[in-house]
Amino acid sequence: MDTDANIAHRLKRVLSEERPQFERVEPDLMLAALAYHGRDVEEELTIFDLTRRQMGRILQASPAEAWERTGIVGDRGGKSVAQMLKWGSRTPETPPPVHRREAPGPGAR
Q1: Per-domain residue ranges for the chain?
Q2: pLDDT in tens, 34-55
């Protein structure tokens, strides 16, 4: 959840500032300090949902060229809004989708 909030904050800054600079996030430090295990799951999901909805409205209202604006992310260099969105939407913990063949319909051989 905190990663999503961080990406939303960065996106807002990239859309509103000229090439803002960001330090890389230290996940181990966040894990140690932010009481993940004591959080309310429903509340976290609500925050996640509202953040995504808000960013969706902001991005829909942005002109196409805004998606090419860049921010400087630590040692990763310049990243555009489009690149940040692509990175933010990946979920390394989630396995790739399994493509299943549909079962044949009734009477099929």
Answers
A1: 2-88
A2: 898 899 999 999 999 999 999 9
